[in-house]
Design a protein that fits this description.
By secondary structure, this protein is an alpha+beta fold. The chain has nine helices and 18 strands. Bound molecules: flavin-adenine dinucleotide (FAD). Flavin-adenine dinucleotide binds next to helix 1, strand 13 and strand 16. One of its GO terms (molecular function) is oxidoreductase activity.
Protein backbone atom coordinates (compact mmCIF):
# COMPACT_ATOMS: atom_id res chain seq x y z
CA UNK A 1 0.00 0.00 0.00
CA UNK A 2 1.24 3.53 -0.79
CA UNK A 3 2.47 5.33 2.29
CA UNK A 4 0.32 8.36 3.06
CA UNK A 5 1.61 9.66 6.36
CA UNK A 6 4.96 11.45 6.68
CA UNK A 7 6.93 13.62 9.11
CA UNK A 8 7.20 16.36 6.47
CA UNK A 9 5.87 17.14 3.01
CA UNK A 10 7.87 19.39 0.69
CA UNK A 11 5.93 20.82 -2.26
CA UNK A 12 8.19 21.54 -5.24
CA UNK A 13 11.12 19.43 -6.43
CA UNK A 14 13.33 22.19 -7.85
CA UNK A 15 16.64 23.20 -6.30
CA UNK A 16 15.04 24.82 -3.26
CA UNK A 17 12.62 22.00 -2.44
CA UNK A 18 15.17 19.27 -3.21
CA UNK A 19 17.84 20.87 -0.96
CA UNK A 20 15.38 21.25 1.93
CA UNK A 21 13.91 17.76 1.46
CA UNK A 22 17.43 16.30 1.37
CA UNK A 23 18.29 18.16 4.59
CA UNK A 24 15.09 17.03 6.34
CA UNK A 25 15.49 13.39 5.34
CA UNK A 26 19.13 13.46 6.43
CA UNK A 27 17.91 14.74 9.84
CA UNK A 28 15.80 11.58 10.10
CA UNK A 29 12.38 13.02 9.15
CA UNK A 30 10.41 10.73 6.83
CA UNK A 31 9.88 13.23 4.01
CA UNK A 32 7.67 13.27 0.91
CA UNK A 33 8.78 15.45 -2.02
CA UNK A 34 5.98 16.29 -4.47
CA UNK A 35 6.75 17.85 -7.85
CA UNK A 36 4.39 19.00 -10.56
CA UNK A 37 6.55 17.98 -13.50
CA UNK A 38 7.67 19.18 -16.91
CA UNK A 39 4.71 21.44 -17.63
CA UNK A 40 5.53 23.64 -14.62
CA UNK A 41 7.82 26.68 -14.72
CA UNK A 42 11.12 25.32 -13.47
CA UNK A 43 13.89 27.83 -12.84
CA UNK A 44 16.17 25.06 -11.59
CA UNK A 45 16.47 23.54 -15.04
CA UNK A 46 17.38 26.76 -16.86
CA UNK A 47 19.82 28.70 -14.74
CA UNK A 48 23.39 29.93 -15.05
CA UNK A 49 25.13 27.96 -12.31
CA UNK A 50 26.96 30.64 -10.35
CA UNK A 51 27.63 30.16 -6.66
CA UNK A 52 27.84 33.89 -6.24
CA UNK A 53 28.46 36.25 -3.36
CA UNK A 54 29.75 39.59 -4.63
CA UNK A 55 26.51 41.05 -5.98
CA UNK A 56 24.25 39.95 -3.16
CA UNK A 57 22.74 41.85 -0.27
CA UNK A 58 23.28 45.57 -0.85
CA UNK A 59 21.06 47.25 1.75
CA UNK A 60 20.34 43.83 3.31
CA UNK A 61 23.33 42.68 5.41
CA UNK A 62 21.35 39.65 6.65
CA UNK A 63 21.16 38.43 3.05
CA UNK A 64 24.87 39.12 2.52
CA UNK A 65 25.67 36.92 5.54
CA UNK A 66 23.21 34.20 4.48
CA UNK A 67 24.72 34.08 0.97
CA UNK A 68 28.29 33.98 2.24
CA UNK A 69 27.28 31.29 4.72
CA UNK A 70 25.96 29.25 1.83
CA UNK A 71 29.18 29.63 -0.17
CA UNK A 72 30.98 28.31 2.94
CA UNK A 73 28.59 25.36 3.29
CA UNK A 74 28.88 24.41 -0.38
CA UNK A 75 32.15 22.39 -0.26
CA UNK A 76 30.75 20.30 2.62
CA UNK A 77 27.48 19.71 0.76
CA UNK A 78 29.23 18.89 -2.52
CA UNK A 79 31.60 16.42 -0.83
CA UNK A 80 28.75 14.76 1.07
CA UNK A 81 26.60 14.43 -2.06
CA UNK A 82 29.52 12.96 -3.97
CA UNK A 83 30.14 10.43 -1.22
CA UNK A 84 26.47 9.46 -0.85
CA UNK A 85 25.48 9.46 -4.54
CA UNK A 86 28.67 9.29 -6.61
CA UNK A 87 27.47 12.43 -8.45
CA UNK A 88 29.89 15.34 -8.67
CA UNK A 89 28.34 18.80 -8.72
CA UNK A 90 31.30 20.36 -10.55
CA UNK A 91 31.80 22.88 -7.75
CA UNK A 92 34.73 25.26 -8.23
CA UNK A 93 35.30 28.27 -6.00
CA UNK A 94 38.36 30.02 -7.44
CA UNK A 95 36.94 33.49 -6.73
CA UNK A 96 35.08 35.52 -9.31
CA UNK A 97 34.99 38.88 -11.03
CA UNK A 98 32.52 41.43 -12.31
CA UNK A 99 33.90 43.04 -15.48
CA UNK A 100 33.49 46.78 -16.15
CA UNK A 101 33.51 47.96 -19.76
CA UNK A 102 33.77 51.72 -19.12
CA UNK A 103 35.19 54.13 -16.53
CA UNK A 104 31.64 54.93 -15.50
CA UNK A 105 30.87 51.24 -14.84
CA UNK A 106 34.16 50.86 -12.96
CA UNK A 107 33.44 53.89 -10.77
CA UNK A 108 29.91 52.70 -9.96
CA UNK A 109 31.12 49.20 -9.20
CA UNK A 110 33.78 50.56 -6.86
CA UNK A 111 31.14 52.52 -4.94
CA UNK A 112 28.86 49.48 -4.85
CA UNK A 113 31.55 47.20 -3.43
CA UNK A 114 32.68 49.81 -0.87
CA UNK A 115 29.10 50.14 0.36
CA UNK A 116 28.68 46.37 0.52
CA UNK A 117 31.85 46.21 2.63
CA UNK A 118 30.67 49.00 4.97
CA UNK A 119 27.37 47.21 5.46
CA UNK A 120 29.17 43.94 6.22
CA UNK A 121 30.51 45.56 9.42
CA UNK A 122 32.48 43.21 11.65
CA UNK A 123 31.57 40.30 9.39
CA UNK A 124 33.94 41.83 6.82
CA UNK A 125 34.03 41.56 3.03
CA UNK A 126 37.27 40.96 1.18
CA UNK A 127 37.31 42.49 -2.30
CA UNK A 128 39.59 44.36 -4.66
CA UNK A 129 39.04 46.64 -7.62
CA UNK A 130 41.57 45.47 -10.21
CA UNK A 131 42.74 47.33 -13.33
CA UNK A 132 45.03 47.08 -16.36
CA UNK A 133 47.93 44.62 -16.44
CA UNK A 134 46.92 42.95 -13.20
CA UNK A 135 43.43 42.25 -14.54
CA UNK A 136 44.94 40.83 -17.75
CA UNK A 137 47.26 38.59 -15.73
CA UNK A 138 44.31 37.21 -13.80
CA UNK A 139 42.18 36.72 -16.92
CA UNK A 140 44.29 36.31 -20.07
CA UNK A 141 42.44 37.27 -23.26
CA UNK A 142 40.50 40.19 -21.77
CA UNK A 143 39.44 42.68 -24.44
CA UNK A 144 40.89 46.22 -24.68
CA UNK A 145 37.51 47.67 -23.72
CA UNK A 146 37.63 46.08 -20.26
CA UNK A 147 38.60 48.92 -17.92
CA UNK A 148 38.79 46.83 -14.77
CA UNK A 149 36.86 44.53 -12.49
CA UNK A 150 35.81 43.82 -8.93
CA UNK A 151 37.15 40.58 -7.45
CA UNK A 152 36.19 38.59 -4.37
CA UNK A 153 37.62 35.26 -3.19
CA UNK A 154 34.19 33.83 -2.28
CA UNK A 155 32.67 33.33 -5.72
CA UNK A 156 32.44 30.19 -7.82
CA UNK A 157 30.18 28.01 -9.92
CA UNK A 158 28.75 24.49 -10.24
CA UNK A 159 26.58 22.43 -12.55
CA UNK A 160 22.97 23.16 -11.57
CA UNK A 161 21.69 20.02 -13.28
CA UNK A 162 24.16 17.71 -11.56
CA UNK A 163 23.37 19.46 -8.29
CA UNK A 164 19.66 18.83 -8.78
CA UNK A 165 20.27 15.21 -9.67
CA UNK A 166 22.59 14.71 -6.71
CA UNK A 167 20.06 16.23 -4.29
CA UNK A 168 17.27 14.02 -5.63
CA UNK A 169 19.46 10.91 -5.56
CA UNK A 170 20.75 11.77 -2.08
CA UNK A 171 17.19 12.32 -0.89
CA UNK A 172 15.80 9.02 -2.15
CA UNK A 173 19.02 7.23 -1.16
CA UNK A 174 18.47 8.39 2.43
CA UNK A 175 14.95 6.91 2.35
CA UNK A 176 12.95 9.93 1.12
CA UNK A 177 9.86 9.47 -1.05
CA UNK A 178 9.85 11.39 -4.34
CA UNK A 179 6.61 11.70 -6.27
CA UNK A 180 6.98 13.33 -9.72
CA UNK A 181 4.03 14.46 -11.86
CA UNK A 182 2.19 15.23 -8.64
CA UNK A 183 0.82 18.76 -8.69
CA UNK A 184 -0.70 19.66 -5.34
CA UNK A 185 -4.35 20.54 -5.93
CA UNK A 186 -6.45 20.24 -2.77
CA UNK A 187 -5.10 20.89 0.71
CA UNK A 188 -6.24 21.46 4.26
CA UNK A 189 -4.36 23.08 7.11
CA UNK A 190 -4.58 22.93 10.90
CA UNK A 191 -1.77 23.61 13.40
CA UNK A 192 0.84 20.88 12.90
CA UNK A 193 -1.61 18.84 10.83
CA UNK A 194 -1.58 19.25 7.06
CA UNK A 195 -3.05 17.25 4.27
CA UNK A 196 -2.46 17.68 0.54
CA UNK A 197 -3.91 16.00 -2.53
CA UNK A 198 -1.71 15.20 -5.50
CA UNK A 199 -1.96 12.68 -8.34
CA UNK A 200 -5.13 11.19 -6.88
CA UNK A 201 -3.58 10.54 -3.44
CA UNK A 202 -4.02 12.30 -0.11
CA UNK A 203 -0.96 12.73 2.12
CA UNK A 204 -0.66 13.97 5.72
CA UNK A 205 2.17 15.39 7.80
CA UNK A 206 2.70 17.69 10.80
CA UNK A 207 5.07 19.83 8.70
CA UNK A 208 4.70 21.21 5.20
CA UNK A 209 7.26 23.24 3.25
CA UNK A 210 6.14 25.31 0.26
CA UNK A 211 9.04 25.31 -2.20
CA UNK A 212 7.09 25.43 -5.44
CA UNK A 213 8.91 28.41 -6.97
CA UNK A 214 6.43 30.64 -8.79
CA UNK A 215 3.69 28.19 -7.70
CA UNK A 216 4.15 29.40 -4.10
CA UNK A 217 2.20 32.59 -4.80
CA UNK A 218 -1.02 30.53 -5.08
CA UNK A 219 -0.20 27.89 -2.48
CA UNK A 220 0.94 30.16 0.37
CA UNK A 221 -2.41 31.74 1.40
CA UNK A 222 -3.89 28.27 1.91
CA UNK A 223 -1.36 27.69 4.69
CA UNK A 224 -1.58 31.12 6.35
CA UNK A 225 1.53 32.36 4.50
CA UNK A 226 2.38 34.94 1.86
CA UNK A 227 4.73 34.48 -1.08
CA UNK A 228 4.27 37.46 -3.40
CA UNK A 229 6.70 36.16 -6.03
CA UNK A 230 6.65 37.10 -9.71
CA UNK A 231 8.58 35.89 -12.77
CA UNK A 232 11.68 37.65 -14.11
CA UNK A 233 12.92 36.25 -17.40
CA UNK A 234 16.57 35.49 -18.07
CA UNK A 235 18.08 34.38 -21.39
CA UNK A 236 21.27 32.35 -21.68
CA UNK A 237 23.53 31.45 -24.64
CA UNK A 238 25.90 28.46 -24.73
CA UNK A 239 28.93 28.08 -27.01
CA UNK A 240 30.58 24.97 -28.35
CA UNK A 241 33.31 23.50 -26.15
CA UNK A 242 36.70 25.18 -26.27
CA UNK A 243 40.15 24.33 -24.95
CA UNK A 244 40.79 27.95 -23.97
CA UNK A 245 40.48 28.03 -20.23
CA UNK A 246 38.68 30.76 -18.31
CA UNK A 247 40.37 30.65 -14.88
CA UNK A 248 37.40 31.99 -12.97
CA UNK A 249 33.76 32.87 -13.63
CA UNK A 250 32.53 36.39 -14.21
CA UNK A 251 29.02 37.63 -13.42
CA UNK A 252 27.97 36.93 -17.01
CA UNK A 253 30.44 34.40 -18.45
CA UNK A 254 31.40 31.03 -17.04
CA UNK A 255 33.02 27.91 -18.43
CA UNK A 256 31.42 24.57 -17.66
CA UNK A 257 33.49 21.56 -16.59
CA UNK A 258 32.95 20.16 -20.10
CA UNK A 259 34.44 23.29 -21.74
CA UNK A 260 31.39 25.19 -23.07
CA UNK A 261 31.00 28.86 -22.25
CA UNK A 262 27.71 30.00 -20.80
CA UNK A 263 26.89 33.62 -21.60
CA UNK A 264 24.16 35.43 -19.81
CA UNK A 265 21.92 36.41 -18.47
CA UNK A 266 19.25 39.03 -18.99
CA UNK A 267 16.77 40.41 -16.48
CA UNK A 268 13.43 41.00 -18.22
CA UNK A 269 9.92 41.75 -17.14
CA UNK A 270 8.10 39.48 -19.60
CA UNK A 271 5.41 37.91 -17.44
CA UNK A 272 5.20 34.15 -17.92
CA UNK A 273 6.45 34.38 -21.52
CA UNK A 274 9.27 31.86 -21.97
CA UNK A 275 10.20 33.11 -25.45
CA UNK A 276 13.58 34.41 -26.57
CA UNK A 277 14.34 37.69 -28.30
CA UNK A 278 17.11 38.32 -30.87
CA UNK A 279 17.86 41.81 -29.44
CA UNK A 280 18.54 40.45 -25.97
CA UNK A 281 20.57 37.56 -27.35
CA UNK A 282 22.61 40.01 -29.45
CA UNK A 283 23.34 42.21 -26.41
CA UNK A 284 24.49 39.20 -24.37
CA UNK A 285 26.78 38.04 -27.20
CA UNK A 286 28.15 41.55 -27.85
CA UNK A 287 29.08 42.09 -24.21
CA UNK A 288 30.74 38.67 -24.09
CA UNK A 289 32.84 39.46 -27.19
CA UNK A 290 33.84 42.88 -25.84
CA UNK A 291 34.91 41.14 -22.62
CA UNK A 292 36.87 38.36 -24.38
CA UNK A 293 37.26 38.95 -28.15
CA UNK A 294 38.24 35.27 -28.73
CA UNK A 295 34.66 34.27 -27.93
CA UNK A 296 33.68 35.62 -31.39
CA UNK A 297 35.34 32.53 -32.93
CA UNK A 298 33.07 30.10 -31.08
CA UNK A 299 29.77 28.81 -32.44
CA UNK A 300 26.67 29.14 -30.32
CA UNK A 301 25.08 25.73 -29.87
CA UNK A 302 22.16 26.39 -27.53
CA UNK A 303 20.06 29.21 -26.11
CA UNK A 304 17.10 29.29 -23.77
CA UNK A 305 15.13 31.41 -21.39
CA UNK A 306 13.86 30.63 -17.90
CA UNK A 307 11.92 32.49 -15.23
CA UNK A 308 13.46 33.63 -11.95
CA UNK A 309 11.39 33.52 -8.77
CA UNK A 310 11.47 37.16 -7.61
CA UNK A 311 10.08 38.78 -4.48
CA UNK A 312 9.14 42.49 -4.75
CA UNK A 313 12.48 43.55 -3.20
CA UNK A 314 14.55 40.82 -4.90
CA UNK A 315 15.47 39.16 -1.58
CA UNK A 316 14.56 35.63 -0.47
CA UNK A 317 11.41 34.96 1.53
CA UNK A 318 11.66 32.40 4.33
CA UNK A 319 8.65 32.26 6.57
CA UNK A 320 6.63 30.21 9.01
CA UNK A 321 2.89 30.36 9.47
CA UNK A 322 1.62 31.90 12.72
CA UNK A 323 -1.89 30.63 12.06
CA UNK A 324 -0.80 27.10 11.17
CA UNK A 325 2.48 26.30 12.98
CA UNK A 326 4.37 23.65 11.05
CA UNK A 327 3.90 25.36 7.65
CA UNK A 328 6.96 27.00 6.10
CA UNK A 329 7.79 28.64 2.79
CA UNK A 330 11.10 29.19 0.97
CA UNK A 331 11.47 31.39 -2.13
CA UNK A 332 14.59 32.79 -3.76
CA UNK A 333 16.23 33.74 -7.04
CA UNK A 334 19.59 32.15 -6.18
CA UNK A 335 18.77 28.52 -5.57
CA UNK A 336 22.17 27.25 -6.71
CA UNK A 337 24.13 29.63 -4.49
CA UNK A 338 21.84 29.02 -1.52
CA UNK A 339 21.75 25.21 -1.75
CA UNK A 340 24.37 25.05 1.02
CA UNK A 341 22.32 26.99 3.56
CA UNK A 342 19.04 25.42 2.45
CA UNK A 343 20.28 21.88 3.09
CA UNK A 344 22.54 22.55 6.07
CA UNK A 345 20.95 25.45 7.99
CA UNK A 346 17.33 25.96 6.92
CA UNK A 347 16.31 22.29 6.90
CA UNK A 348 17.52 21.73 10.51
CA UNK A 349 15.45 24.75 11.64
CA UNK A 350 12.36 23.33 9.92
CA UNK A 351 13.07 19.92 11.43
CA UNK A 352 13.27 21.59 14.86
CA UNK A 353 9.84 23.15 14.22
CA UNK A 354 10.67 26.88 14.00
CA UNK A 355 12.89 29.34 12.13
CA UNK A 356 15.60 30.92 14.27
CA UNK A 357 14.94 34.55 15.37
CA UNK A 358 17.75 35.75 13.06
CA UNK A 359 15.60 34.73 10.08
CA UNK A 360 12.91 37.33 10.90
CA UNK A 361 14.12 39.89 8.30
CA UNK A 362 13.38 37.31 5.58
CA UNK A 363 9.69 37.08 6.55
CA UNK A 364 7.10 38.21 3.98
CA UNK A 365 5.72 40.42 6.75
CA UNK A 366 8.29 42.99 5.57
CA UNK A 367 5.94 43.74 2.65
CA UNK A 368 3.09 44.52 4.99
CA UNK A 369 4.19 47.68 6.77
CA UNK A 370 1.40 47.67 9.38
CA UNK A 371 1.95 44.09 10.58
CA UNK A 372 5.75 44.49 10.48
CA UNK A 373 5.60 47.64 12.67
C1 LIG B 1 18.13 32.61 -16.30
C2 LIG B 1 18.38 32.27 -14.87
C3 LIG B 1 19.68 32.27 -14.38
C4 LIG B 1 19.91 31.96 -13.05
N1 LIG B 1 21.19 31.92 -12.59
C5 LIG B 1 21.44 31.56 -11.32
C6 LIG B 1 22.77 31.46 -10.86
O1 LIG B 1 23.73 31.68 -11.60
N2 LIG B 1 22.98 31.12 -9.56
C7 LIG B 1 21.94 30.90 -8.69
O2 LIG B 1 22.19 30.64 -7.53
N3 LIG B 1 20.67 30.95 -9.11
C8 LIG B 1 20.39 31.28 -10.40
N4 LIG B 1 19.10 31.33 -10.85
C9 LIG B 1 18.02 31.12 -9.89
C10 LIG B 1 17.71 29.69 -9.61
O3 LIG B 1 17.55 28.98 -10.80
C11 LIG B 1 16.43 29.67 -8.77
O4 LIG B 1 16.65 30.36 -7.57
C12 LIG B 1 16.03 28.32 -8.38
O5 LIG B 1 15.99 27.48 -9.48
C13 LIG B 1 14.66 28.38 -7.76
O6 LIG B 1 14.35 27.08 -7.42
P1 LIG B 1 12.93 26.69 -6.92
O7 LIG B 1 13.05 25.28 -6.52
O8 LIG B 1 12.43 27.69 -5.94
O9 LIG B 1 11.98 26.88 -8.20
P2 LIG B 1 11.78 25.97 -9.48
O10 LIG B 1 13.04 25.47 -10.03
O11 LIG B 1 10.91 26.77 -10.40
O12 LIG B 1 11.01 24.72 -8.94
C14 LIG B 1 9.70 24.80 -8.48
C15 LIG B 1 9.12 23.41 -8.61
O13 LIG B 1 7.85 23.42 -8.01
C16 LIG B 1 7.00 22.58 -8.74
N5 LIG B 1 5.62 23.03 -8.50
C17 LIG B 1 5.05 24.22 -8.80
N6 LIG B 1 3.77 24.25 -8.39
C18 LIG B 1 3.53 23.04 -7.80
C19 LIG B 1 2.40 22.44 -7.17
N7 LIG B 1 1.23 23.09 -7.05
N8 LIG B 1 2.51 21.17 -6.72
C20 LIG B 1 3.68 20.48 -6.83
N9 LIG B 1 4.78 21.01 -7.39
C21 LIG B 1 4.71 22.27 -7.87
C22 LIG B 1 7.45 22.69 -10.19
O14 LIG B 1 7.22 21.48 -10.87
C23 LIG B 1 8.94 22.97 -10.06
O15 LIG B 1 9.74 21.83 -10.29
C24 LIG B 1 18.83 31.64 -12.18
C25 LIG B 1 17.53 31.63 -12.68
C26 LIG B 1 17.30 31.93 -14.01
C27 LIG B 1 15.90 31.88 -14.51
Amino acid sequence: MTRQSFDAIVIGGGLVGAAIAYGLQRQGLATLLLDEGDIAFRASRGNFGLVWVQSKGLGAPHYQRWTRGSAQEWPKLAAELKERTGIGTGLQQPGGVHLCLSEEEFGKRGEYMARLQREAGNFGLEYRMVRGAEARDMLPGLGPQVVGMSWTPYDGHASPLYLLRALHTGFTGAGGTYQPNARVEGSSAAPNDFSVEAAGQRYRAPRVVLAAGLGNADLAPRFGLEAPVRPERGQILVTERTQTVLPMPTTTIRQTEEGSLMLGDSKEDAGFNLGQSPEVMRKIAQRAVLSFPWIANLNLVRAWSALRVMAPDGLPIYDQSERFPGAFTANCHSGVTLAGTHANRLAPMIAAGALEPGMAPFSARRFNVRSAA
